[in-house]
Specification:
globular; 104 residues; PH-domain like; alpha+beta
């Protein structure tokens, strides 16, 4: 896995987590600076294993996950899933492997 910090489609800094060429997580928000996006990615990397992961059904009937610490959302799934169990497996993969990802 690898963290990437860059600009989203609106030109605002954010971070993404990739496994091979697939985006598996993202910040779920944009930041005021690249520095803040990098700090947020580092914080998620360091706390991914202890974050709370919630799996939920979105308005389109697909399954997603989000990670949070306290009441703050810190990451979101990079894609939607056809089943709850697939979303749960994806969240577990991020929880177990984001801490050893390369960069930021």
């Amino acid at each position: 896995m690898k963290f990437v910090v860059g600009n989203d489609s609106g030109g605002h800094p954010s971070w993404w987590l990739y496994s091979s060429s697939d985006m598996v997580a993202w910040a779920g928000e944009s930041f005021g600076s690249t520095y803040n996006a990098t700090r947020a990615a580092e914080a998620f990397k360091n706390g991914a294993s202890s974050a709370r992961y919630d799996v939920y059904e979105d308005m389109g009937g697909k399954w997603r996950w989000r990670a949070s610490r306290s009441s703050d959302k810190v990451a979101a799934s990079g894609e939607s899933f056809a089943s709850k169990s697939n979303a749960e497996r994806a969240a577990a993969n991020v929880r177990d492997n984001a801490g050893s990802a390369t960069d930021p």
